[in-house]
Specification:
Chain lengths: 131, 422
């Protein structure tokens, strides 16, 4: 099944396993930059390393992009980010950490996607495909 | 498709150096996210310390600031960390990183003066000019008080604007996006004209909570707010919410009248603020009723010279009790002015301590203090919010007027004298 969405940052196609965080997320405060382990909410105690990380919307501090860049440098960043509504701070997360990112999907990805699903992310073509 | 000028293309192609090209590439990607049709020239920027050092190194190669650019404060006063009560091992661990950052700032031409009030040290964008300031309050003040165009995208965005002198033509850079969405009015019984700084903070904290990211208009106040009043009123709007623009009818330049503030738009909603809302916010920001305050923090945002003058008048001839800690944060350049007027001597003779270049409250590294306080008092709604949250709810807060905070350090007891205790 294909779901249309909006490209925030593309550059490559990603195929990986999904991890769904049900709460609004910020890289500043909600995740450990050393190991990618999330502190709060649905995935507390689990790492988003190499996952397609899904959450409803971004929130919080404008320092988030620096934390995301550290995650990337430490090799623990997600492979892609999908959310329903991104803000400017998340756009900067994607750009600075170079993580393909999409938002504004035609159907609610918070119900369409489950942790463990395999998904292909095609930012340049403007869709994701649930495999 | 976005249009780039010849100069912008040259920047992107590396003719202005490697770092400039990387910064320009990020500006272009940022513009593409928003589907911006073009870039605009940015004259003033203010950047955040705390960049990952590898990134800073990479960007510094073949780049220089193309704007008037200043730098935000650190979590500690690097000269007076012992006075501030920060543990030696943590400061010694962090210091090489901070020093390396400063080397890069100087090389790039970013003025490393570490204040959250860049407009106090000459970084003043003019009306309708484009700027990109870091710091939620700086964004709000720049947009609202000076009427400059300032996006709210954060740390790296401010940095790349500094190196390129560019930002995408999007969001608040576009006139049509700057009209009011929500209207706030004090009810008749509130008598907002007489509010002290803390009461303005309560009002602002409520506005942010309701408005979140929307453009706000405050109407119905029969006075023009001065700079200090404006600072305490608006900083909390970007704390409980993420307001980036708030027009105050009769004070801010895009709101000479109510009609001008909304332009062709109609308010989506009119919200009347009364005693109930003020009391609710007072309760949120006072996490305890205890009078036994260990520490007072003032200077969030950094204090101005008029504030230091009134503080000196309150403290002259008085003594802070020996078991109490009283910290006042200002920019280093403000200390130079204060010295010319002996304000520092009068204030410090009381036992209160002046800190510079430090974010006092929101970024205080509580877990790296020699002796973490149990209860802190402040006159800043923004600091009150972040002290409690940032300490993982281990440091309680009393929030109230500057006089109440000062008196608690002299008498040893915090006594609320206001109208909103609940």
């Amino acid at each position: 099944m294909k779901v249309k969405g909006n490209k925030i940052l593309g550059g490559r196609v990603i195929e990986a396993e999904v991890m769904v965080q049900k709460e609004p997320f910020s890289f500043f405060g909600d995740v450990n930059r050393e190991n990618g382990v999330i502190n709060v909410g649905t995935n507390a105690g689990r790492s988003f390393k190499d996952k397609i990380f899904v959450f409803p919307q971004s929130k919080g501090s404008t320092l988030a992009p620096y934390v995301a860049a550290d995650c990337k440098r430490n090799g623990v960043a997600p492979k892609a980010i999908l959310c329903q509504k991104a803000d400017g701070v998340l756009a900067m997360v994607a750009i600075l950490a170079d993580i393909p990112t999409m938002d504004q999907f035609e159907t609610d990805i918070m119900t369409a996607l489950k942790t463990g699903d395999n998904v292909k992310v095609e930012p340049e073509k403007g869709y994701i495909e649930i495999l | 498709m976005m249009k780039l000028t010849d100069q912008e293309k040259k920047m992107l192609n590396g003719e202005y150096g490697e770092g400039t090209a990387k910064a320009m590439d990020m500006v272009v990607k940022w513009a593409e996210v928003y589907g911006a049709e073009k870039l605009v020239d940015v004259s003033n920027t203010h950047t955040s310390p705390g960049e990952p050092i590898e990134w800073l190194k990479e960007m510094s190669k073949g780049a220089k600031a193309r704007t008037y650019s200043t730098v935000h404060p650190f979590p500690v006063d690097r000269e007076r960390w012992q006075v501030q009560g920060i543990k030696r091992d943590w400061v010694e661990k962090m210091e090489p990183y901070w020093q390396e950052c400063i080397v890069h700032y100087k090389r790039l031409g970013l003025i490393p003066n570490f204040t959250c009030c860049p407009y106090m040290v000459g970084n003043v964008p003019s009306f309708r000019s484009n700027s990109n300031f870091f710091g939620s309050e700086a964004v709000l003040l720049t947009n609202s008080y000076f009427g400059a165009r300032n996006p709210r995208v954060g740390g790296p965005a401010c940095f790349i604007s500094a190196l390129t002198g560019k930002a995408p033509y999007e969001g608040l850079m576009i006139d049509e996006n700057r009209y009011g969405e929500l209207l706030f009015e004090p009810d008749a019984g509130l008598k907002m004209e007489g509010f002290d700084h803390a009461e303005l903070g309560l009002f602002g904290y409520y506005v942010g909570l309701v408005a979140q990211e929307k453009v706000c208009v405050v109407n119905g106040v029969q006075k023009r707010f001065d700079f200090e009043e404006f600072k305490y009123l608006t900083a909390p709007m970007a704390t409980s919410g993420s307001v980036a623009l708030c027009h105050i009818v009769g004070t801010t330049p895009e709101a000479l009248t109510l009609d001008q503030a909304f332009g062709p738009k109609k308010p989506r909603e009119k919200i009347v603020v009364g005693a109930k809302e003020m009391k609710d916010m007072w309760r949120k920001l006072n996490t305890t009723d205890s009078e036994d305050v260990d520490m007072v923090l003032l200077g969030c945002p950094h204090l101005s010279i008029p504030e230091l003058k009134s503080l000196a008048a309150m403290l002259e001839g008085k003594k802070v009790r020996s078991e109490k800690r009283f910290f006042i944060a200002i920019g280093d350049d403000m200390l130079n002015i204060a010295k010319k007027m002996d304000l520092d001597q009068i204030i410090e003779a009381s036992g209160a301590k002046i800190l510079t270049g430090v974010c006092n409250g929101p970024l205080t590294p509580w877990d790296h203090m020699v002796s973490k306080p149990k209860l802190v008092a402040t006159n800043s709604a923004k600091a009150a919010h972040y002290i409690y949250a940032g300490s993982g709810m281990t440091v309680n807060v009393r929030f109230g007027s500057t006089e109440e905070c000062v008196n608690s350090m002299i008498t040893g007891r915090y006594v609320d004298t206001g109208r909103w205790a609940s």
